[in-house]
Amino acid sequence: MSGFTWERGPFTRCAKCGQTKMGILSAGGGLLTKRCTNCRRTVQLPLPELDKKAIYLDQFMFSMIYNVKNEGNLPKGHEAFAKEVYALLRRCVLLQQVFLPHSDIHHDETTVFHSPIDLRGLYKFFGGDVSVMDSRDVELLQDIQFAKAYFDGKEPEVSFDIDEIANSQRNDWLPDMHVGVRADYSQFADHIRTVRGDVHDALKKLADTWLEKKVSFAGVLESEFSAIGPTKKQAFAKWFEEVSNPDPSNPLALFESSGRPIYREYRELCHLLEDRGVDEDKQAIEIMKFWHWERQREIPHQRISSYLFAAVAGRVVMGEKRIVDRGLMNDVRTISTYAPYVDALFIDKRCAALLKEEPLRAELEYKARIFSLSDPDEFLGYLRELEAQTPDEVREYAAMIYGID
Ligand SMILES: [Zn+2]
């Protein structure tokens, strides 16, 4: 067999044997490994440090990228945008300037997509393979940061550094070769569809009530805020009832109860109180007090989601009932959990419009720049800017390793 080598070009001169046979063996993490095809001399070079931007794309964008890649149908009127955004994102990811985080919300939606396995591959190979903490865990993280402040009588401190929620490899150089694991999550699809259907039905009922009562933005916002404590208390009571009276024919139900967000928060809060020397029999009372603390409404995920629901209610009252669709719940969750941490968020037009309205625009604070299909050029411009900002040294290595020009 002639011609095959593990090393690949560009080849440079080898310091040991003098031949121009020093090629790339592998890259990834923070190292480039080069080896001579002739004498096997191996050198490892440290790669420049990176500071990638986190661009969170909603599921719609990932499906679109999937369709560009697989020559499927592109959204009408946005065909040119789809192709251009695909090329630009690909370039920014390979230039090691950007990663496209994926979350549990993507995973749920992907499971009900027609080609879930291929779509998952996209997060890995196209997006730079950085997952962020599940949305529920982000909520819990913020709840606990506030609980510490409450129990210690201090000001809440919440860090919105992306490293709080992203896995630590986000600033690694991507490996030059990918070996994919094809995981099949399709058995969860029915369950996810059912849950989503239930949530949607409940939300539709809520929308009817908004319309009937002609609610105001301020009214809904206040009732969202004042419902935080009672809702948590009620969820906990429901959980407690379930585990106290387990259905003997259904052990799985009990298993499921142990992962319930409300129970996980309760348990974390018990640990905090334990650390602070609070007796076990007094912990529940302290937790209830925390759940009813006035400053719960300042917890970022609570604040953002309450504002969004109040804005949605406003639209419903104005006659725009179709704003309450199957995707709304996930959109609200995406924004309320990830917007404070990521650099950019590409979301549904409808939610992007709500965020640009007053009082949301002035009163909500989060790091992410918001993009949507309402202004596709704005997003392309942002990507071009990131592309142009790539340091020369990084650009040279990226060209060598990933073969982009
Ligand atoms: Zn050599």
What labels would you give this structure?
single chain, 405 residues, alpha/beta, 2 domains, four-stranded parallel β-sheet, 8 strands, 9% strand, globular, binds zinc ion
Description:
The structure is a single chain. The chain has 405 residues and is an alpha/beta fold. It folds into two domains: 8-46; 53-242 and 291-405, no CATH class. 53% of the residues lie in helices and 9% in strands. It contains 16 helices and eight strands. The chain has helices at 59-69, 79-94, 104-111, 116-125, 135-152, 189-213, 217-244, 251-257, 261-275, 280-291, 300-317, 328-338, 349-356, 360-363, 376-388, 392-402, and strands at 8-12, 22-28, 31-36, 42-46, 53-57, 98-99, 344-346, 369-371. Strands 1-2-3-4 form a four-stranded antiparallel β-sheet, with no helix packed on it. The chain has a four-stranded parallel β-sheet with strand order 6-5-7-8, sandwiched between helices. A hairpin with a 5-residue loop joins strand 3 (31-36) and strand 4 (42-46). It is globular. The model is unreliable at 178-184 (pLDDT under 50). The structure holds zinc ion (ZN). Zinc ion binds at residues 14, 16-17, 19, 21, 36, 38-39, 41.
